Model the fold of this input.
Amino acid sequence: MPTGIILALIIVALLLLLLGITALLIYSYAVRVAYRFFARPQPRPPFDKSPLSIDQTTIFGRGQNWFYSNRMNILDWQMTAFDGIKLYAYYIPANKKNTRDVVILLHGFNDAPSVMAAYAQLHLEKRDCHILIPHLRAHGMSEGNFVGYGLFDSQDIAMWMQYLETRLGPDLSIILHGRSMGAATALMTAGSGIAPRTLAGVIADSSFDALDTQIAYLTQRKYKMKLRPFLMLVRRVVLKRFGFPIEKASPVSIASRITVPVLLFHGTDDHLVPSYMSDNIYNRIRAPKRICLIEGAAHVMGYNAAPEKYSAEIDRFRDSISDNEWQKLIGRRPAYDEDDT
Done:
């Protein structure tokens, strides 16, 4: 065989080998990205215990300190999810047993459920209510090997709402208040069509608009380039490894189905979940709605950055949740968004 042909075959073989190695590396990295986003972020602890130290420089740290200082008065509830895993929640009963108001607080990705205690304090200061803080699947004491990102969790929360009805009786008025992934969960629960009629309103702080766009945003921010084919590969890996259809974890796609009032919060200096994602959700909601942007606040730090403004918005939401004034807000931003400070 001529030397030229042999040389050409060697070159082709080397190119194919290089191509194969490159493809393998890309696939391996796609698997790493999939596990980074979806695998349980922390091992399930053998029992629930207080952190060894709590940073009390933020309102959330002080809330956690309050939570563990009053841990003996906080009950632990357990429930089996639709797919058989055990879910846990903290329950803080209202002072009056016949109180019908309930707030369900939903934490974010890799959050400790107790970080929501600051919001529990906020709501309890306003009125007597029952507080439920679920440990979202693959977080805290709840079982689960992969994160639900609102798609699976929305079904869990609907079941928790039904569980509350069996424990507390009918005619409840339930508000879902979540941050980050918990905010997406609250919105998806409200738009899923499976939430009980006891759902009265949603407060969503720093939600992503869709999980695939969120992953794309973080990937593009890291590598400064669009990687659509790579993201499609990640989507396939996640579906194969976890049975999770990323494209269906999308609050914005079902926002128009929400029929209860919605209050959105977002920090203008959020570099993890940009504030335009809340704008996208807001524009799709047909129910009474309001959006509050916290100037200069980082991801989920709106309450810490502007506690008085945040609290006032909650007051306005709670006082107006059954008021005809909310009907005037459908399809537009309230004028008072701009002049609030």
